[in-house]
Inverse folding.
């Protein structure tokens, strides 16, 4: 007997992630202008790929801290790949002088760190990421 009910799959909640990645060779190339550009770019990328960037900070001009939310159907590795790839391409296009500090045509280290964040520790992560700006 065929049911007349229509089933919908819907995401009930997003998963929060804290992601960290660094510039290749830990070169201190992330100036204030580049950071401002990357923050704006991260929002554009997030809208296009259906996730949310809550916080985005550059630490010590050589690494990124990013606090995002994404549906559980979206792979965190694909989010990181999209962020790093698009940002590198756009930084090299907009700030060509950055290439002289790096060799091999890579802006980012190939690795990254990611952790899932529960609602209890969300405020602690937000404070930690905000503190990276001061450090």
């Amino acid at each position: 007997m065929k049911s007349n009910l229509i089933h919908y799959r819907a995401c009930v909640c997003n998963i929060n992630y804290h992601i960290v990645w660094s510039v290749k060779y830990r070169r201190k190339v992330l100036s204030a202008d580049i950071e401002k550009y990357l923050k704006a770019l991260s929002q554009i990328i997030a809208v296009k790929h259906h996730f949310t960037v809550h916080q985005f900070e550059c630490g010590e001009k050589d690494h990124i801290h990013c606090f995002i939310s994404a549906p559980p159907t979206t792979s965190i590795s694909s989010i990181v790949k999209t962020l790093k790839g698009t940002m590198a391409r756009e930084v090299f296009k907009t700030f060509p002088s950055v290439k002289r500090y790096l060799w091999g045509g890579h802006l980012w280290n190939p690795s990254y760190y990611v952790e899932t964040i529960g609602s209890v520790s969300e405020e602690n992560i937000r404070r930690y990421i905000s503190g990276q700006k001061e450090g």
The longest helix spans residues 76-94. The mean pLDDT is 89. Residues 31 and 89 are 17 Å apart (CA to CA).
